[in-house]
Design goal:
This protein is of the alpha+beta class. The protein is built from 22 helices and 34 strands. It is globular.
Length: 688
């Protein structure tokens, strides 16, 4: 199995822990030990013995051991981006006095800050704000932390009504809001000039860089509307997004990746290649696949079906809706209702006077397939001899995603999951998980993804069912299987669903972006809630272990990821049109139709462009459609029973006999090669 540097692997090797003496700051201990704190690669904060990040200049109240944190580590990057968000807010208030502040957390690859200005920001405003930020960075202002009481904070922030709303939250804050108020006491951060005088202040838990000068590279990206605290019933604010990196080269690489990502945007390619669309008449997040997209989707599903049959899965089918009682039993209506579509109240009967004769029932569109599969397991008595029982379904599910987060095929409201549930004995659990991981990785590799790491999501302490022992056993089973895989494993504390921990397979695409693919969960809760049992070899009734597994996650999302991974140039076996015949003149049209007939007889998807365009225009059309093989025929080719091969990369082979051309195409497709064909693939034929 291939592996890629995971977020954990990017973290530098832990440095020796250093002792900070009570009444001193970490900077003193680091400098005494010869640890760099001022250079571009020096420490920016420390991690104390409790795992908390602390400023370099905060005075410790007890002796403690600390570990330096570099700016290019995951934690260092978060501190860099949070500090840059503060500089952004300071610049906005300097240029637009009276602007109210929301929150400004770090996020993946950057940061944002929410504002309520007198008017929406313009692109010209962003240029001016970025210029002002450069002045603040150059001024080397010092980030200085101070504790403050709730009442004093309210007095100091009397003109900032959004900040006032945050003060009472503390431990109840969301992850983003916690960057402002933390978990216990409140703190403020003052930006101090070279004389030590405060020039700007914000409510914040920290920590921060020592000075603004330690911000090496940043860029403001765009503005967007955002509801205060993510609630559409609240006031709409203006959000400015930015990115910050530990070096100018890293920023340049990120911007280059974004530029390449824009070229690969599956939403644009989906329209250009006529693959799918999102008609307004249907609704947000609900896709329709056009014939060409339907071919790709069918190929994805058919190959998956084949592999699942070979691996011993049994196919099932379940309806799209169910009575509410099913999700009451599973716990989804207690824990997941916000992500479900509202119920449909059906089956009520009334007498002629309009009185209820028979009450109706609530029906829900299903957000998950697992409760249905449990009913299939429970439909009759089960024996240990049937286990492991592997049920598989391409099941359509529906989730009410907020309109602001719906994004092409990668975040939809209606999706089809390649969903499997495995029921097994305790003794089979570990081997099943290991087998599942191998199956998942091998199948993803068959689709052309080959760089992976694993993420283990553990229990959310505020939202879970079951006992500590059950969660520990399930988590350790997943951890052991993940470690046995040889892939990098990183933790996602608190990221599990309410009913089970999970491993997610993370992959990188062709331009280095990480995507979450398959998930594997060990679940003790649903078998108990549904009363699932099997008869063991001892003649007693036992509860099976249940493993949830989605390989693609959803067909729609996987389709979007592959579209961007291949930049729309799908491998020949997935391409909706695999071959285009291009006659040099009208006289070769019939000849190429006969070649096309031979290819179709071997299952190849082929078209002949017999239109009125000139040959060069037909070649450009085929290249823009990202067709893997072009067969060009002129009068001499027709006389010799040959064609000229032209490939996506523009290379060409002339005078290839028809029989050889058909055989090469059929072989290339059958082998499911995931790169674009070129003359290099057929050097053996040229040599012969």
């Amino acid at each position: 199995m291939s592996s890629v540097p995971s977020p954990a692997a990017v973290q530098p090797e832990p440095r020796p822990r250093l002792t900070v003496i009570v009444g001193t700051a970490p900077r003193t201990a680091l400098e005494s030990a010869g640890v760099e704190v001022n250079g571009p690669s020096g420490a920016v904060v420390v991690r104390d013995s409790a795992g908390q990040l602390r400023d370099l200049d905060v005075v410790f109240e007890i002796d403690d051991e600390v570990e330096p944190v570099a700016i290019d580590s995951p934690d260092g990057l978060a501190v860099l981006r949070h500090s840059t968000a503060h500089v952004l807010a300071q610049a906005v208030q300097a240029l637009f006095p009276g602007t109210l502040l929301g929150i400004g957390p770090p996020i993946d690859n950057g940061f944002y800050y929410d504002f309520l200005p007198d008017r929406p920001f313009t692109p010209e405003d962003l240029v001016a704000i970025e210029k002002k930020m450069a002045e603040i960075v150059k001024a080397s202002q010092r980030f200085s932390r101070r504790s403050i009481s709730d009442d004093a904070a309210r007095a100091e922030l009397a003109g900032q009504r959004f900040k006032l709303e945050l003060i009472g939250l503390k431990g109840g804050a969301t992850a983003e809001e916690a960057t402002e108020v933390g978990g216990d006491a409140l703190t403020m951060y003052d930006n101090l000039d070279r004389d030590g005088d405060p020039v700007w202040t914000d409510l914040c838990r920290g920590p921060h860089l020592p000075t603004t000068r330690r911000i090496p590279a940043y860029k403001l990206m765009r503005t967007a509307a955002a509801y205060w605290r993510g609630n559409q019933d609240n006031e709409q604010l203006q959000r400015i997004y930015g990115t910050a990196w530990p070096s100018k080269d890293a920023l340049k690489a990120h911007l280059s990746q974004l530029e390449e990502a824009a070229k690969r945007d599956h939403r644009t390619l989906g329209l250009d290649l006529d693959l799918f669309s999102f008609p307004d008449e249907i609704g947000s997040g609900l896709a329709v696949f056009h014939p060409k997209g339907g071919i790709i989707r069918q190929e994805l599903e058919n190959y998956s079906r084949q592999r699942h049959v070979e691996a011993g899965y049994e196919f099932v089918y379940t309806p799209h809706i169910t009575k509410a009682g099913l999700f009451e039993t599973s716990g989804h209506l207690d824990w997941y209702a916000d992500s479900m579509f509202p119920p449909m109240h059906l089956d009520a009967e009334f007498d002629p006077d309009g009185n209820v004769r028979k009450p109706g029932q609530d029906y829900y569109l299903k957000p998950m397939n697992c409760p249905f599969h449990n009913l299939i397991f429970r439909s009759r008595g089960r024996s240990y001899r049937e286990l492991p029982l592997r049920l598989f379904e391409f099941g359509s599910v529906y989730r009410y995603e907020k309109s602001g987060v719906v994004h092409g095929l990668t975040r939809v409201r209606g999706m089809t999951q390649d969903d499997a549930h495995i029921y097994c004995t305790e003794g089979q659990l570990q081997d099943e998980i290991k087998s599942l991981l191998r199956f998942v990785i091998d199948l993803l590799r068959d689709y052309g993804l080959d760089e992976f790491y694993l993420e283990l999501s553990t229990r959310n302490e505020d939202k879970y069912l079951g006992t500590d022992e059950q969660w520990e056993q399930a988590t350790e089973a997943l951890r052991a299987a993940a470690q046995d895989s040889g892939l990098d494993l990183v933790l996602d504390p608190g990221g599990a669903a309410f009913y089970a921990p999970k491993i997610s397979v993370q992959t990188r695409d062709a331009i280095g972006r990480s995507w979450q693919m398959s998930t594997i969960q060990v679940d003790f809760q649903l078998p108990d809630l549904f009363g699932l049992e099997y008869q063991g070899a001892d003649g007693e009734r036992h509860q099976p272990y249940m493993i949830h597994r989605a390989l693609f996650g959803s067909i729609e999302r996987f389709f979007g990821v592959l579209t961007e991974h291949y930049a729309g140039a799908f491998p020949a076996w997935l391409s909706p049109v695999q071959v285009v015949g291009i006659p040099v003149s009208d006289q070769q049209g019939e000849y190429l139709f006969e070649v096309a007939r031979l290819l179709r007889a071997d299952g190849v998807r082929v078209e002949v462009d017999a239109g009125s365009d000139r040959m060069q225009k037909k070649i450009r059309n085929a290249q823009q459609a990202k067709v893997p093989f072009m067969l060009i025929a002129g009068s001499q080719d027709a006389e010799n029973g040959a064609v000229s091969f032209r490939y996506r990369d523009g290379t060409q082979r002339n005078g290839v006999p028809i029989g050889q051309a058909v055989a090469e195409i059929v072989e290339f497709i059958a082998e499911r090669r995931n790169h674009s064909p070129s003359t290099a693939d057929f050097d053996h034929a040229i040599a012969e």
